[in-house]
Amino acid sequence: MPSVKSDSKIIAASMSLGCLTLDLEDGTRLEVFDDKQECCEIRHMSTDDDAASLIGSKLWGIEVKDGPDLPADNDAYHETQFVEISTDDGFITLVTHNEHNGYYSGFNLMVEISRTPESPA
Q1: Are 60 and 5 spatial neighbours (Cβ–Cβ below 8 Å)?
Q2: Residue 34: pLDDT above 90?
């Protein structure tokens, strides 16, 4: 995962369909997601935190931390990882899940950086 830090304030933050989207005042958009689902696994990302609580703060970093393996049904596996989004005013934690049959495993967490649709090119 790339090192991400910005002096620009977060002006919009939302979590939808397993993707955290952050828009910065300089026109940068960051999307955090897992980009690897294969045929026999189920992946999803969520948070119990309010992504909107990041609005108005400066992004300090995005850090991946190991999570526990959770119980799963029918000889399946359920792996987790935590993604901490830290700012100058606190942080939120995402959890990404991979439920699989044992053949597939792991994560491919990505931060895609682009320009917001409203910003000049």
Answers
A1: yes
A2: no
Look at residues 52, 48, 30 and name the one whose alpha carbon lies nearest to residue 95: 48
DSSP for 44-75, please give it.
EEE-SS-GGGGTTSBEEEEEEEE---B--STT
Question: Tokens standing for 86?
Answer: 């830290």
What torsion, rounded to 10 degrees, do the Cα atoms 3, 36, 81, 33 define? 50
Q: For residues 43 and 23, what is the distance between their CA atoms, to the nearest angstrom?
A: 24
Residue 120 has pLDDT above 80, yes or no: no
Residue with tokens 């090192």: 3
In angstroms, rounded to a whole number, what is the distance separating the alpha carbons of residues 19 and 31? 6
Write b or e for each residue in 62-98: b if 16 or more Cβ atoms lie within 10 A of its Cβ, otherwise e: beeeebeeeeeeeeebebbbebebbbeeebbebebbb
